[in-house]
Design brief:
This protein is of the alpha/beta class. It folds into four domains: 5-46 and 120-285, no CATH class; 50-117 and 291-312, no CATH class; 326-391 and 454-616, no CATH class; 399-440, no CATH class. Helix content is 45%, strand content 11%. The protein contains 30 helices and 17 strands. The protein has a six-stranded mixed beta sheet, with helices on both faces. Strands 2-1-7-8-9 form a five-stranded mixed beta sheet. The longest helix has 24 residues, at 292-315. The radius of gyration is 28 Å and the shape is globular. The N and C termini lie far apart (59 Å).
Length: 793
């Protein structure tokens, strides 16, 4: 039925390997727990529209890239989506498969219960149906067991075949693992032994054996990658990191070869599924194309997006007036959680103004923390570090921290070791009862010791200092009108007993807190040499302007202020600052408490210390908009903690370089966050992190549910769901920028990968004028006026 390997033409096999490469690129990366950042799970489908991506993902993963029909039906019934939303969304669609009318579009949401999408079967799935043995579960378990040891990042006490490439390491493992043979797959160990010695040869041999050609291979391979779950995404991250450094990585190819060897063995073991598999190959060879169903659901999603855009346009009712020189300017990260605190802080005193900028403050740092030699990349994952910094202290203080860390690691290894772990529990278990009680009551956690001030490794020249300061101030649109105090606020979330802790930190800082960036920038901008250089370049800072660094704890809404080399003659100013921050924190906690299950304004902060709390905060749930404009466009507007706010004044932007930076960096990062929440909400079984209550950490990389199963990337269910309903409303991000339309189009034309996000409607784009929505981007580098009819829908 299928051709032998020797009968496949070299050109065909070359195309099969190209298909393997394309399938690998269709997988999103998953960053390890130590520095988790949000990733767009649809990254590999960014060149397709939503309906086509949904059709592809149905084939390879059994999911749709939209909400269910019943979710849209509920929104129609409760009036959140109006007929006008449906009408404008229908008119905007260019698909020949779209419904003929609003009534027929409604009927797409009013059908029977949602049918669960079904992926094309793997050979393992066909063999399970024929034999009654759950082969997919066996593959998942055995491959997962090997992968947990092979990819371990320091959690395990021992790792097999360290330093060996994945394919060779798996073969060494699989030739001695009798689990498949015990389950009935006789001769599997011999089959692995006889496999080709390289992953590429194994893939081409398997493609020949399974009858896969260049037409069918890409989605067939994509299907197998999706079958491996988080392990494929971890391998994609390894490739991502390698390519950032100008290198490459073979792990994805190795994983595909491993999975194909399993498929070969199972087809040989259950030959009666040959006809069913041949039909599956034919289905894989069909071009991926949207269907009437996926088109209708995509239009309903567009209508849902437009419903929120109406609410946003209502809120943005015009620019407010600006007052005199502010006493305090507080620069926050653009993170949506900052919007609540910014609004609260500005209500405390009229002399306060807030600013929004990416939380790494434009400093691409590779940082070594106090007592550690681990290099942390404190910058967006799209970039490479350019400046090396450290918080290492001098003398005994540094040594004490290192000794303490080594002692803690040794004690942890003793507790986990095979020989001592059971004896430890028997002997020490009762002693931990008191600790558990204290932790449950929030009494057992002490604040982390403050690190020494960060410093650059090696001296920066005066010119380097001034160049950096100039670039940062221009990017922040802070070239004039400086306040007496300028507070630079990084952010991070304080949580307890949570493997996803880094997900609550700063995405712009690579999953770390923004403390280092804020403290370093404050030191730089207070430096007399920097100030003198800025004055020579025509960007003089007032003599009484003082930069102060702080850290916003997004779980407790409390702010730590760092007094790194601050002058002693301004204690009253700092007391005033701390008082304002405390008042703002109370206001912000009261607003957030209303949305947190079981919380009150007085108990919000305590959730950070509770080791059993599955929802210490909502993170970025609800994120729906990105606004780049002067603060006067959004000041006083209640955006409910759903908007990324980036300060930007196009009239001071020479050659629109800052506009280009915003569109190619913060907007892209925000889109990753938005689409991760979207994917974890609409497709939790594939793109979500599962149930926090039964998580186990594997290899320091990610989590599984229970004691085995696939690695789970994405957000835990408790991060988007309150137990009764979704808290995150799955919407595609609406990007609103106050800038000339032509300038925006010019940037998009120079960056086709960013333009594709808007042309394929993974993001929406609008212009603002005087603080109001002015125009909507239309795919193809053109604009539609934002009509009053659409606004009033």
């Amino acid at each position: 039925m299928f051709m032998k390997h020797s009968e496949i033409a070299p050109a065909v096999m070359s195309n099969v390997l190209k298909a393997a490469e394309a399938a690998a690129r269709a997988i999103p990366p998953a960053f390890p727990l130590e520095a988790t950042v949000a990733v767009n799970p649809f990254l590999g489908q960014a060149t397709e529209d939503l309906a086509t991506a949904s059709a592809r993902l149905k084939r390879v993963a059994g999911l749709q890239a939209t909400q269910s029909a019943s979710a849209y039906r509920v929104a129609l019934e409760n009036g959140r989506i109006t007929d006008a939303d449906l009408s404008t969304a229908l008119a905007a669609s260019t698909s020949s498969l779209k419904p003929e009318s609003v009534a027929s579009l409604k009927s797409a949401a009013m059908g029977d219960e949602d049918a669960q999408p079904v992926a094309l079967p793997t050979i393992a799935a066909l063999a399970a149906e024929a034999t009654g043995v759950d082969w997919p579960a066996l593959v998942e378990k055995t491959v997962g067991l090997w992968a947990a040891g092979h990819f371990d990042r320091g959690q395990a006490l021992w790792s097999p075949t360290p330093g060996t490439e994945a394919f060779a390491a798996w073969r060494a493992f699989a030739t001695h693992d009798l689990t498949p043979e015990i389950a009935g797959l006789t001769g599997f160990c011999a089959h692995v032994t006889q496999a080709p010695d390289t992953a590429e040869r194994a893939i081409t041999r398997a493609a020949a054996t399974l009858g896969l050609d260049e037409a069918s291979a890409e989605t067939a391979f994509h299907r197998l990658y999706m079958d491996l779950g988080g392990w494929s995404q971890h391998a994609r991250w390894l490739l991502w990191q390698a390519e950032l450094a100008g290198k490459t990585d073979r792990t994805l190819v190795d994983l595909l070869a491993i999975r194909l060897i399993w498929e070969e063995a199972l087809l040989k073991h259950v030959p009666e599924i040959g006809q069913a598999w041949a039909e599956t190959v034919v289905a894989h060879a069909m071009p991926v194309a949207p269907t009437r169903e996926t088109v209708a659901l995509a239009i309903l999603q567009d209508a849902s997006d437009r419903a929120h855009q109406r609410q946003l346009a209502d809120a943005l009712d015009g620019a407010s007036t600006t007052g005199e020189r502010p006493f305090l300017q507080a620069a926050f990260c653009i993170d949506v959680r900052s919007e609540v605190f910014r609004r609260a802080l500005e209500t405390v005193d009229p002399s306060i103004e807030t600013i929004g900028f990416a939380g790494f403050f434009g400093l691409p740092l590779a940082h070594k923390s106090h007592g550690s030699d681990v290099v942390e990349a404190h910058l967006p994952v799209l970039l490479n570090p350019a400046v090396e910094t450290t918080s290492h202290a001098e003398g005994p203080a540094e040594q004490d921290v290192r000794i303490s860390a080594r002692t803690s690691r040794a004690w942890g290894r003793f507790r986990q070791a095979a020989v001592s772990s059971f004896a430890f529990v028997e002997a020490a278990g009762p002693l931990y009862a008191g600790k558990l009680v204290r932790d449950a009551l929030g009494l057992g956690t002490t604040p982390a010791r403050q690190e020494p001030a960060p410093r650059v490794v090696g001296d920066l020249s005066i010119e380097q200092k001034v160049d950096t300061a100039t670039a940062v101030l221009k990017a922040m649109s802070m070239t004039e009108g400086h306040g007496q105090l300028i507070l630079l606020l990084g952010h991070g979330g304080h949580v307890t007993n949570n493997p996803h802790e880094s997900a609550y930190h700063c995405g712009a800082c690579g999953g770390y807190t923004g403390e280092v960036s804020a403290r370093l920038l404050a030191l730089l901008l207070n430096d007399p040499e920097t100030r003198a250089g800025l004055k020579d370049r025509g960007m003089a800072l007032p003599e009484d302007t003082l930069f102060v660094a702080g850290l916003h704890d997004t779980t407790t809404d409390r702010v730590s202020v760092f007094e790194d080399s601050l002058p002693h003659h301004r204690p009253e100013d700092l007391r005033k600052l701390r008082g304002w921050l405390e008042q703002a924190g109370k206001i912000a906690r009261a607003e957030r408490a209303a949305k947190l299950p079981g919380a009150s304004a007085d108990t919000v902060a305590a959730r950070a210390l509770n080791w059993a709390e599955v929802r210490p905060e909502w993170g970025l749930a609800g994120c729906a908009a990105f606004i780049a404009a002067p603060r006067k466009a959004t000041a006083g507007k209640d955006l409910s903690g759903r908007a990324f706010l980036h300060s930007y004044d196009w009239q001071t932007d020479e050659d629109y370089k800052t506009l280009e930076l915003i569109l190619t960096a913060p907007v892209v990062v925000a889109s990753w966050i938005s689409l991760q929440y979207f994917g974890s909400s609409v497709a939790p079984e594939v793109f979500g992190g599962g149930n926090k209550l039964i998580h186990n950490v594997v290899g320091g990389i990610g989590v599984i549910e229970g004691n085995s199963g696939r690695l789970r990337p994405g957000l835990p269910w408790q991060a988007v769901h309150d137990g009764n309903a979704l808290v995150h409303e799955p919407l595609r991000l609406s990007v609103m920028i106050e800038a000339p339309r032509e300038a925006i189009l010019d940037v998009l034309s120079q960056h086709p990968e960013v333009r594709g996000l808007f042309d394929n409607s993974w993001l929406h784009l609008f212009t603002l004028k005087d603080g109001q929505v002015d125009a909507r981007y239309r795919p193809g580098l053109s604009w539609d006026e934002y009509s009053p009819t659409e606004h009033a829908a």
